[in-house]
Amino acid sequence: MKPISTRVVQAAVGVLGLISVAAGLWAMIDPRSFYSDGAPFPPYNVHFLHDIGAFQIGLGACLWAGLLLPDALSAVLAGNAAGAVAHFVAHVVDHAHGGHASDPFVFGVSALLLVVLTAARAMTVPARL
Hints:
The protein is mainly α.
């Protein structure tokens, strides 16, 4: 059995990961509400809020992956893949808000690479028992 301090740390990390992912989803799904109720720092910029949401999702995913995956590299790859996929989605959804025409392609390739690397790592590292 693990010492209580380990279980407390793991529970806290799990809760913080949940909060981070929830905040990220809120910013991505309803940026106007997130801006009004959670981050009223002018000027309002929907794409910036989507980016904030994507990165919060990635941070929360890193925390969860650190609890669930067998090694640090696997956790970092999985968390970054989650954030990169969310960031790619933000650029596809927000293509009319500015940026470069190549942004969805560039961020899509980056996300795909991180997903492939995460999967490759999972195939080479034994699962945590």
